[in-house]
Write a structure and sequence with these properties.
There is one protein chain. This protein has helices at about 5-50, 70-85, 90-100, 175-185, 200-205, 210-225, 245, 270-285, 325-345; strands spanning about 145-150, 190-195, 230-235, 245-250, 255, 260-265, 290-295, 315-320. α5 crosses α6 (about 210-225). It has a six-stranded mixed beta sheet, sandwiched between helices. A two-stranded antiparallel sheet has the order 4-5. The termini are far apart. By secondary structure, the protein is α/β, with parallel strands linked by helices. The model is unreliable at about 45-70 and about 85-130 (pLDDT under 50).
Length: about 350
C-alpha cells in the first residue's frame, strides 16, 4: 500500500470516527420509528382484522381503493397514521413490543375488546341510529328484564373452534352469554339474551366486519325500545391472546381470564370508567388473579366507542381467548355472574 493510499484511508477513518456518534443516534431513531410503525401496524391489524372491533380504522382502508377519490382518502389516512407515529414515540411501547415476542405471528382467530358503564341512578340510553330494519327478537327468556346480554361478535369461538365432545358442537361467546344469564336468573335478576345474529346482519348488508357494532347497535335500540325495564346492557367477547396468558387457577379450578376494555372516544367515557373500575375491583377482590385489568382504547386506529355511548350502564367484557376450554369458560361465566349479581343488588 503506497503513501497516498495510507493517507486516504487515514482521512476516511477520521471522518468515520467523527460521524460514528451521529450514525448511532440516527440508527437508534430509525429503530424507534420502525418499531413504532410495526407496533401500530400490529395493534391496528390485531384490532381491526383479528379482533374485528374497529368502525374507523386507518390501516384497514389503506389498500382498499378503486377510484381517484379513494386514493385521496388513502393519502390522508397515511398522513394521519405517520403523524401518530412521529408524535407518540415511546420507549415503553418499544419494550412491550419486544416482550410480546411477536405474538401476532401465532394469532389464529378473531376477537374483540370490552368495558363497562355508570350507576343506575344516572341511568339513561340514547337512540342515534337510522330507522331500524331488523328482524324481531325470536326468543324472550324472561319478562320485565333488568339485564340485556348480546354479542357484537357472535362468531367468536373457544377451544380453537374444535367440536366439543360434551356438546357435540363448537363453543362460542353466545354459550358464554347464556351461561351468565342462567346464573343471573337463578339470583332473581331477570335477564334477556339476544337471539339474533350480528354476523348475519353484517353478511346480509355486505358490511366490513368492523361494522358489527353497527349491527348490535340496531339490536340495542330495538330491544331497549321494547323493554323499558332494562337497566344493564352487556356485550360479551373473547380475546386472541396466547392460551398461557388467558388461563388461571383459583382454588384448584381453571378459569378463562377476564378483561375490561374502556373506549375513551365517547361522551360517557368518565361514566363508563367509574363503573368499570368498580366491577374490576370487585372481580379482583372476589377472584384474585382472574382479572387481566382494564384496557383503555381510543385515538387514531381505535374504535374508542364500542357502543358505550348508548347507555350509562353499558358493560363490555372479554372472557378468555381462542383456546380456553369449555370448563374454563363455564367457571369464568359463574364468576362474572357472581360479580354482576353483587354489583347490581348493591345498586338497587
Amino acid at each position: 500500500m503506497n503513501r497516498k493510499q495510507r493517507l486516504r484511508r487515514k482521512k476516511w477513518k477520521k471522518k468515520l470516527n467523527k460521524l460514528t456518534p451521529y450514525i448511532i443516534i440516527l440508527g437508534f431513531v430509525l429503530t424507534l420509528c420502525f418499531t413504532q410503525f410495526f407496533q401500530l401496524l400490529y395493534v391496528n391489524q390485531k384490532e381491526a382484522y383479528d379482533k374485528h372491533v374497529k368502525q374507523e380504522t386507518i390501516l384497514s382502508s389503506i389498500f382498499d381503493f378503486s377510484t381517484a377519490g379513494d386514493i385521496v382518502d388513502v393519502v390522508m389516512n397515511l398522513q394521519k397514521y405517520f403523524a401518530e407515529i412521529m408524535t407518540s414515540l415511546d420507549l415503553n411501547q418499544l419494550c412491550s413490543f419486544i416482550n410480546d415476542g411477536f405474538a401476532f405471528i401465532n394469532m389464529k382467530a378473531p376477537s374483540q375488546s370490552a368495558t363497562a358503564a355508570t350507576p343506575p341512578q344516572d341511568y339513561k340510553y340514547t337512540y342515534v341510529s337510522e330507522e331500524l330494519d331488523v328482524e324481531p327478537m325470536q326468543e324472550v327468556i324472561t319478562t320485565d328484564p333488568l339485564v340485556y346480554i348480546f354479542n357484537s361478535h357472535d362468531g367468536e369461538l373457544y377451544e380453537g373452534g374444535a367440536v366439543n365432545e360434551q356438546l357435540g358442537r363448537t363453543v362460542s361467546v353466545v354459550d358464554l352469554s347464556y351461561m351468565v344469564a342462567e346464573q343471573l336468573q337463578s339470583q332473581n335478576i331477570n335477564t334477556l339474551v339476544e337471539s339474533r345474529s350480528a354476523a348475519e346482519v353484517v353478511s346480509k348488508n355486505k358490511w366490513h366486519y368492523s361494522l358489527s357494532y353497527k349491527a348490535s347497535r340496531m339490536f340495542l335500540e330495538d330491544t331497549a325500545s321494547q323493554h323499558e325495564t332494562l337497566r344493564y346492557f352487556i356485550d360479551f367477547h373473547r380475546d386472541s391472546i396466547s392460551y398461557e396468558k388467558s388461563v388461571t387457577t383459583i382454588d384448584g379450578k381453571p378459569y378463562a381470564k377476564v378483561m375490561f376494555v374502556l373506549g375513551t372516544d365517547n361522551e360517557r367515557y368518565k361514566e363508563n370508567q367509574k363503573i368499570i373500575q368498580e366491577l374490576e375491583a370487585l372481580l379482583s377482590e372476589k377472584y384474585p388473579g382472574l382479572s387481566r385489568g382494564i384496557r383503555e382504547n381510543g385515538g387514531v386506529g381505535y374504535n374508542g366507542v364500542y357502543n358505550q355511548d348508548f347507555a350509562t350502564t353499558m358493560i363490555l367484557i372479554e372472557v378468555g381467548s381462542d383456546y380456553n376450554t369449555y370448563e374454563e369458560v363455564t367457571n369464568s361465566a359463574q364468576a362474572v355472574a357472581d360479580v354482576l349479581t353483587t354489583y347490581i343488588k348493591g345498586h338497587q
